[in-house]
Amino acid sequence: MEIREPKADEAARIREVVDSSMTTSFRLSPGQIDGITDDQFGDDSVTEKIDDEDTLLHVVESGEDIEGTTIAGFVEGRLEDGWGEVNWLFVDPEHRGQGIGTELYETATETLRERGAEHVYVTVLEANIEGHQYVEQFGLEHDGDRRIEVAGESLVKYVYTDSDVDVDLPTESGAESADDEDAKTDELPDTETTDGQLTTTTDDGETVYVARDEDESGTAAPFFVTYEDEDHAEQYGFYCANCGSLDVSMAEMDRLECSDCGNEHAERSEESYDDSHL
After folding, report:
1. C-alpha separations of 208 from 184, 186, 218, 245, 261 in Å
2. Confidence class of residue 151 from pLDDT cuts 50, 70 and 90?
3. Which residue, among 239, 241, 245, has the nearest Cα to 260 in the 3D structure?
4. What predicted TM-score, i.e. pTM, was given to this entire model?
5. DSSP strand pairing (2-4 vs 55-65)
6. Second label for 87, Cα 20 to 30 Å away, from 109, 128, 182, 246?
């Protein structure tokens, strides 16, 4: 196993690793995955990142491929305002279980500190059903959310930091706090603010209250718990933030599904993960 910086002509293989990793473990549609890989890991994007002195890229080269060596994992980090961010980490599903993810994570964080980062944090897409537990194994704690735009998609990233870090994180270019109530209100279809609370209306004309701080991830957008009363005492059901529907069903194993747009959520497994992706 060798960890090194990638070459520009290896962008196609990096994209393959990202695509297969996301397809296997992310609660995203094929179209969303294609959009992210095109936007973030296309040939031009990888070349620009290689040339950017504030961006860190590493790949793991494995010798287990039948025809020789192959790139089995990829990590991306960035330096900004004295902080180091590990913002993407992927391991090819066919090469998991070898400690590749851990090697990439530890190498990236160490390199970021060597380049001047005083603190390092990790961001994980909300739709990454394995990545959240993975970073928590390193003692990191959820420390807020960011809403980012990637290939025309509005996505939420969870931010993880060391538990003893008590300083303000830098603001990522093009990102905003996913906890910003006004931003959330503007982005949620068929909602309005009533006496300071976010509400929506049922097909029968009844007002229900949307709990912005009680959400579950979805393949297209989060689901929010809804209540019949403004005190949030009697739960009504769930609201789909992708299309604004209240027609959300819960099936076995805590699986949510919007009947109108097909947005889905499935509870993450409680397993521990040796190799993962951010």
Report:
1. 17, 17, 21, 12, 20
2. confident
3. 245
4. 0.66
5. antiparallel
6. 182
